[in-house]
Design a protein that fits this description.
It contains one helix and four strands; from the N terminus they run H-E-E-E-E. By secondary structure, the chain is mainly β.
Length: about 80
């Protein structure tokens, strides 16, 4: 199912990673997916019940199946 976000909202949403790049609807594999994809780092953020979940811990990186486990400090 395709997400329907207000165009003005989509215009101001940005990736929470340090690059703060714009987001685009869908995923690289499915333009109709309930998700937003960062145009810079490629992280995919879920959209649940029409609400974008812009948390790094909830994002998936391209080529991974689950949340971004590599984000964070390991020191």
């Amino acid at each position: 199912m395709a997400i329907t976000l207000d165009a003005q909202l989509l215009e101001i949403l940005a990736c929470p990673s340090p690059d703060h790049a714009p987001l685009r609807p869908g995923t690289p594999d499915d333009a109709e997916a309930d998700a937003l994809t960062c145009t810079e780092c490629g992280r995919v953020y879920p959209v649940r019940d029409g609400i974008p979940v812009l948390l790094l811990d909830e994002a998936t990186l391209p080529g991974t199946a689950g949340p971004d486990a590599d984000h964070g400090d390991s020191a």
